[in-house]
Specification:
Helices cover 43% and strands 16% of the residues. The protein is of the alpha/beta class.
């Protein structure tokens, strides 16, 4: 099925390690660890899990001397695991000191995240910002200047509020605060360039926690600059609230061609996997037709015709299997992420939807014959019966992958991303 192309707004391209952000490159998925960075093994393990799930950039907290000292070790552990995902250092109040006192940390990181609202105050703050930019220049590292609603430079807010109060028709306070976010990002980027950081080494973000505010801020930010933009609600929340909020905000902006890299900042459920935020980010991009990451499963929602839960269990089993297999398939084959699978629950839409997918199965509804026809590229190939439908269908999927997707040549790096021309 073809999709209408989403025209991307033109932005400058920034390279973070081997990953390109902006300039027509595919929208990049990134995430962040929630481990104590001092625990090098635990942090490296979570970085690896996030990368395996599909995170193309991973940010880690660098907040203490002990944490900074462990960054080179984390990089070494990851390299030993064959994981080359670029690491981003998240710096706040003391980043200027950590980057200068721990040069091995500065070298091991692929990018620095700087929040201009908390690098210091007045002249001292300017000097601390300059120190961080100087390190970025020394090691040729890009930076993300990331402004947050909750840590906005209050001096800037007061200045803009005072200017607003003198207007004949003052704007609402919320509008002035949104303007402060944008001004903070753009003024900091200009200062970084004045300090010698190249234009193509800067990524911007202006994160807030409300959907409408985020859309308004990024629409205006995109209008005023060509820096690549990092999208995401700063605190999306937990569960369905976080998923829905992130999807609502990011989908609107992405549909308008705004955004070059995204993070879905989900609060994990107690004991839940950190990787869920990566899956959600991928699914936002894939369901919008912007990128493909893993075979998509179309599944029947169920109704009064499907009192059996067999189709639900099979859909879940197949979806989990496809995601689990994708790291293996990605290494062996090209194009598997484009495969579509349909798991349907009764005769009403089952055969039709199954024929539209690469592989589809139509399970029997209530009162229907206990048989499940399987369709491959629109043609019925077999009818499954009995208690082993899930295992047999899984074998059909494996066979389809092996027969229909080209094996990678030796040395052909997986995950090559299609370039999309910006207009």
């Amino acid at each position: 099925m073809s999709h209408s192309a989403i025209l991307r707004l033109p932005t400058q391209r920034v390279h973070v390690g081997d990953i390109a952000i902006g300039g027509g490159a595919p929208v990049v998925v990134q995430s962040m660890t929630n481990t104590d960075t001092v625990d090098a093994e635990g942090t490296a393990r979570q970085v690896y899990e996030l990368a395996q799930a599909g995170s193309e950039l991973v940010r880690i907290t660098v907040n203490t001397s002990e944490a900074a000292a462990q960054v080179p070790r984390i990089r070494k552990i990851l390299d030993g695991m064959g994981c080359d995902v670029p690491l981003i250092g998240d710096f706040h109040y003391n980043g200027h000191r950590l980057l200068t006192e721990f040069p091995d940390c500065a070298q091991a990181l692929a990018k620095y995240r700087i929040n201009p609202g908390n690098v210091g105050k007045n002249r001292k703050g300017e000097d601390q910002f300059a120190m961080m930019i100087a390190v970025a220049r020394q090691y040729d590292k890009p930076v993300r200047i990331g402004v947050n609603w909750g840590s906005l430079d209050q001096d800037l807010v007061v200045r803009l509020m005072d200017e607003n109060a003198r207007l004949a028709q003052p704007r609402e306070a919320g509008e002035v605060t949104r303007e402060a976010l944008i001004v903070s990002a753009l003024e900091s980027a200009r200062r970084a360039e004045d300090l010698g950081l190249p234009h193509d080494r800067i990524v911007l973000s202006c994160k807030v926690s409300e959907v409408q505010d985020l859309i308004a801020v990024y629409q205006e930010l995109a209008r005023r600059c060509d820096y690549p933009l990092h999208l995401g609600l700063t605190e999306a929340g937990m569960g369905s609230k976080g998923i829905v909020g992130s999807t609502a905000a990011l989908a609107v902006l992405l549909q308008q061609g705004i955004g070059d890299t995204i993070r879905v900042s989900l609060t994990p459920e107690p004991g839940g996997p950190r990787t869920q935020e990566v899956v959600v980010a991928q699914e936002i991009l894939q369901t919008m037709g912007l990128r493909s990451f893993t075979p998509m499963v179309t599944a029947c929602p169920g109704c009064g015709r499907t009192t059996s839960t067999v189709f639900q269990e099979l859909a879940q089993s197949i979806q989990n299997y496809l995601r689990m297999q994708m790291p293996v398939w990605r290494e062996q084959y090209t194009g598997v992420e484009e495969m579509t699978v349909a798991v349907m629950g009764c005769i009403v839409n089952g055969p039709g939807e199954s024929k539209l997918a690469n592989i589809g199965i139509s399970l029997p509804g209530t009162g229907e014959s206990p048989a499940a026809p399987v369709y491959v590229d629109g043609e019925k190939t077999v009818t499954l019966r009995g208690d082993n439908i899930a295992a047999e269908f899984q074998l059909i999927v494996d066979d389809y992958v092996a027969k229909n997707y080209a094996r990678r040549e030796a040395g052909d790096k997986p995950g090559k991303r299609i370039e999309i021309k910006a207009v």
